[in-house]
Design brief:
With about 260 residues, the chain is an alpha+beta fold. It is built from nine helices and four strands; from the N terminus they run ααααββββααααα.
Length: about 260
């Protein structure tokens, strides 16, 4: 009798641990999505509520955390189509199923996955079961948010920053060329040539952009590897059962690269 009570007590504590763990993981997923949405919506709030202009020039004049964050996120918002695409994808992850798959091996209707877990109709119970699959949240939802969605957003922000820095750099070079035409001394020409060579090495070559492109390749490798695993595990067609999940991140990254190359 004592043994039975102990087993029941351990069973209840184990079930409580599972429930609490699922809630914590689900809340962590929601937290990551909330942070990403906050990053996208903050520049809109700054533009509506603040009269201050957050630009690279202002940040160079007054370097502080607020000016830096304001400038960075404002540059992302200037890429309106990219910004809207990121916002739409995050709302999709929050409000809609990510994909549909064959959850049970004995057949039945396909279930669909959300950031909170699986929603599926059991073939024998004839009842809809919601937010199942605590391990699946850990191996599917969390890795997608941590290693694909959030890094992709940071890379897109990086492309926007680099593009603006390169644009300002080109404008400064054109101004220096005009100054060189007005100045006659050999010393000024020598100093300007030294500055030009130094800036050309660090900015004209666009090393930051090249590094971001390498990061993009790493993100896409991780994303397509995860998608391939899902296809095998849940008997899915990527274009039929989860096209938004599969294609959104690659298209957003490619479009961000295209837009920032033409600024």
């Amino acid at each position: 009798m004592v043994l039975l009570v102990l087993c029941l007590g351990h069973g209840r504590s184990l079930w409580s641990w599972v429930v609490n763990g699922r809630l914590c993981i689900s809340r962590f997923s929601g937290f990551l999505l909330g942070v990403s949405l906050f990053i996208l919506l903050l520049p809109v709030a700054l533009l509506l509520l603040s009269k201050k202009q957050y630009t690279l020039q202002n940040f160079s004049t007054d370097k502080n955390f607020v000016n830096g964050i304001g400038w960075v996120l404002t540059e992302l918002y200037k890429l309106h189509s990219v910004w809207f695409g990121c916002l739409a994808y995050l709302f999709y992850l929050v409000l809609f199923p990510w994909f549909s798959g064959q959850l049970f091996t004995d057949g039945g209707k396909r279930g669909y996955m959300t950031y909170k877990g699986w929603v599926v109709k059991h073939p024998e119970m004839d009842k809809k079961l919601e937010f199942l699959g605590f391990p699946d949240i850990m191996v599917i939802v969390i890795p997608h948010l941590v290693f694909v969605v959030f890094p992709s957003l940071m890379v897109i922000v990086g492309f926007a920053m680099e593009s603006e820095m390169y644009r300002i750099h080109l404008l400064s070079l054109s101004g220096k060329k005009e100054d060189d035409g007005r100045k006659k001394t050999s010393k000024s020409r020598h100093d300007n040539s030294q500055i030009h060579r130094s800036s050309k090495f660090y900015i004209d070559k666009r090393w930051i952009r090249k590094i971001l492109m390498v990061v993009c390749l790493v993100i896409l490798y991780k994303h397509f590897k995860n998608s391939r695993t899902l296809v095998k595990a849940y008997d899915m067609n990527p274009l039929l059962h989860f096209p938004v999940y599969t294609l959104s991140v690659p298209l957003l990254l490619a479009y961000a690269i295209y837009k920032t190359s033409r600024r």
